[in-house]
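On clarity, I found the account of how folds are encoded harder to follow than it need be. An entry of this sort, consisting of the sequence and the corresponding backbone structure tokens, reads as follows:
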Amino acid sequence: MTKIQAYEDFVKVHGILLAASGLPRTLHRKLFDKLTSETFDGGAYFQVDPCQDGRQRRLLLTSAASMPKDSNVFLIDHAWTFRLSDAYKQLQEVPGLAQRMAALMCVDIDSNSDVEEIDGDGVSRDTYSKLNVTDIVENEIGYAKERGYDTVKWLELEELDIDDDMLLSLDLSSKFPDLLALSLCGNKLENVEIVVQEVTKLKNLKALWLNNNPVLENCDGCMADTIFKGCPGLEIYNSCFTSNFGEWALGFCGGVYEKDNPCPIHQDNHPLQSVTSLDLSNRSIHSLINKAFSPVEMPSLSHLNIRGNPLKQNSVSELFKVLKGFTSLQTLEVDLPGPLGESAIEILESVPNLSQLNGVNVSKILETGNHVIDAVLQPRLPEWTAEEPLADRVINAMWLYLMTYRLADEEKIDETSVWYVMDELGSALRHSDEPNFRVAPFLFMPEGNLDSAVSYSILWPIQNVQNGDECTRDFLFGIGEDKQRSARLTAYFHTPQYYFIQEYEKFHQKLQSKSSTPLPVKSSSSRTLRRTDGCALRVYTDLPQVEGFLTRTEFIITTELKDADIIWTGMQVDDDVKRAAGITDQQYINQFPFEACLVMKHHLAETIQKAHGSPDWLHPTYNLESHLSQLIGDYYARKRDGMNNLWILKPWNMARTIDTTVTDNLSAIIRLMETGPKICQKYIEHPALFEGKKFDIRYIVLVRSVKPLELFLADVFWVRLANNQYTLDKHSLFEYETHFTVMNYRGILNHKNTPEFVKEFEQEHQVKWLDIHERVRNMIRSVFEAAATVHPEMHSPMSRAMYGVDVMLDSSFQPKLLEVTYCPDCTRACKYDTQAIGGGGELLKGSDFYNYVFGCLFLDETRHVCPL
């Protein structure tokens, strides 16, 4: 087709794309004009401004007039388009790419600011560091006397390289016996006994900050408990409220108590009466039922922030009762979902005096009926060090900017998604739940075919926008709470961690409570299919391997599906296919009903969890379409506890590791949901290795019956080896041949004969393979028991099937289930002769593989298989 010239031809070729974009019909011609003339005129209307101290950018409308809704459309170029596996390589190799992306994502400058830090006394940090600690202590004594105090009550000794010996020599308790607040943040304190000894001499302490000292890494919870006993009046410890918090801690957060006013000068029965605004966010508060936290003590309280607190000791009704008592309370900030439940509407009904909730006017909430609202979530901003290369900074930050699409034509859809970054103008659009602009990808085909396609994004106003307004888009357009919108915002914003941790803990406890009883192993009840007239069983198959290697005289291949006794196919046979093909209930099929509970990854995990809870052989697994909150909680809990946080994301129903990703980036995990439904599974970061390389093992399981459960494990199995030496270096996560083992379809396949592998593996690790094999057998039996127990409807007397079970060993040689595959690729089983492991080491000829598979399933034989 020649180049598109007329608007009518443009609409004809791009009609589906125009409809999918959502662009109003009134803007179609304007889009055509700008595409054909390559008009990028956004710079005449918009301005990109830095914000968040230069760590983010925003887009402002700067044209002289306002911009009415649906009045214009703008082209946005794509600055970087790539497949995920190529991202790191391109950043390293494409000239100028890393520099442009780093500038666009605001990670091109060192994170350490050159601005001189000034403390509350007008003394620069540089000046402080030049003074020795003794001088600072003397200055503090003089400072206290100037303000009329007999002794120092508030002492800040931060980032002064104070070590354990220096702390002892300071003898703080002798110099400052009445000290109320002490900050030793950012020093070099290491010894738990010395710190506890010196701190607990200060009997009047109300607040103690030891943040960012090595001692906190060296201690357990006992240090805090000992300090609490030695300082019974302590209300704040390392920025968190103790269970003993009261008037002083609330006064500190309410601005009553500070360095210049550490305590009431005169006896005051109600020192908090002047408090109108109280920020209690992220204080680890477990209960708000407290004598000091009451309307009697704070009658003028009008603004309250209780975000980031677990409040586990209070029920929702108790919290509502406390808050309702503050009749002057106008604005409230709280985690949603959180301790007050999951509904903004319910909060407003229970605390009716509020005029604003989480920064949104009550009238607006009631008008829209939104249950989950938040106008003040803090954005995730990239973090990096000065030594970190630009490519690494971009890889970490890009998930805040990426967008995605997948190409398709009349014949097929592309298996891997395309990711892209909009240009500087498009990338400056920040998120809003109530956006004034909309963005959509658009594929322009100037010659009417996919080969000529050029990808853009198109931008248009969906509200009336005034000069100077910030231009925003909805990062989660079309995604509501039914699709876990609040949880998915975690990719872009700091959402309440403790809520997600609670969701994870509830899920984990539920799994731990599960137990199952193994199904009894019964003698075979399935019957042989041998024909009494001696005729061969007719087999219809669409698999070349079966057609080529099934050579037993008891079977004969037929091309007529309706004439077959046995149908052995690689396609899914459902009721519609049966009707269309004329398949009857008297024909055997190599599929069991509801076998999706095994062969689809999300159903497999769910089946096992329902039956067994959380067995050791199944790594933590989450269906991201239904359990994203629990996954986020698990991630946060691991991060809190300093545990490994590497995860692998797998599509529900794709083979050959297509669209599979390994990452420790939470934003990446959430964003990868956009390329299709996935499970997220804890990565086996310490697998057993063979000569330093990762491997997995493919086992073949034959199922004669589900009720009773009749399973057989083929004697033949094979190992699949990665090509590269295993490493957890973050750059290796982009190397397929390091972290994946399936090389049949890409990379170089290095086949290892099974007996050789077993012998060399035993020698390398000084283990007995038969011990490992027995653990694998027990695990596989448990997997199929789970399916038979949870889904008894799988049973069908006219079904016989073969499944591939992929297993990995961890560094302790314990088996871990990877997946179960329907109609597995058995090329290696047919191609290579091998020997049975154990027993007499009988020869297993590859050309006989399907002969003994069919013999087991349809003739009740057990040659080269063993029952499970």
User: Anything to note?
Assistant: The two ends are 62 Å apart (CA to CA). Residues 111-130 have pLDDT under 50 and may be disordered. DSSP finds 30 helices and 39 strands in the chain.
